[in-house]
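User: My advisor asked me to double-check a structure prediction for Inositol-1-monophosphatase before group meeting. I don't want to rely on an old file, so could you generate it fresh from this sequence?
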Amino acid sequence: MHECGGVAEAGAVAQEEKLEKIALTAAIRAGNHIATRRRELAGRSGVVEAVATKSSAVDPVTLVDQESEDLISAILMEATPDASVVGEESGTRANGASGGELQWIVDPIDGTVNFMYGVPAYAVSIAAAVQGKVVAGVVLDVAAREAYVARTSGAARLLHVPAAATAAEHTVMKRELTLGAEGKELAQALIATGFSYQADRRQVQAGVLSELLPKVRDIRRMGSAALDLCALAAGRVDGYYEAGLNAWDFAAGALIAKRAGARVRVPDLDARSADNALVIAARGEIFDALTGAVEGGTRGEC
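Assistant: Sure, here is a fresh prediction for Inositol-1-monophosphatase from the sequence you gave:
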């Protein structure tokens, strides 16, 4: 467990720029595929059916999740043959017996339930980690055609992705993402969160939420951890917390939020949902108060 931070060495900047561009191109192509397939597969009711479940009966997988991950993995492994790809649906892939120091961390559709129902809040999330540290991240909001991008050597940015875009160079800069200090207290804060697919964990999370709700302005539950973290980076919420995430849920979004100026604490990249570790990110002035409210005090920061 650690608080994200750090700025890249000068010699790593070019590599980070390259990795960010590769990730953005892969995310755009996957996003185009996801949008097309949703139009093809949505039934008369507008719902895309699940083909399987994962951790519980309410944790669905669609054909498009797997198709998107296959497409992303092919693009990443062609561009970086010595890397490994860790994906939500297929585990770890590598061209050789094991990947090199570069590891891609991929969620092909973060917000699958939203995707199924046509709720416009689902994303492609791709992070590049070098020797266990995330150095570049991209989160593509498929429905909004917005890409959130960051690397440790630069500011977080929000990009527009035109309908005809197929690569990173086709995007249009909208703005840098910078969270200025607003002097907020927790009582004035809009907080995002998410819930587990496990019934017993949901009961615990409901208890935490019931304790937190009277202490904040309001709560938002959007259904995508990656987009929650990007909403913080964009100033659309003031904080976010959720327990029991996997690395592919938070790796890219956490870097984006950090580079926008948020304080961010995440588990190590080998964390799994079963560990039930807490991801927490917020404007600096409310970080400690939010952490204390959801877990009884800060711990595990560096």
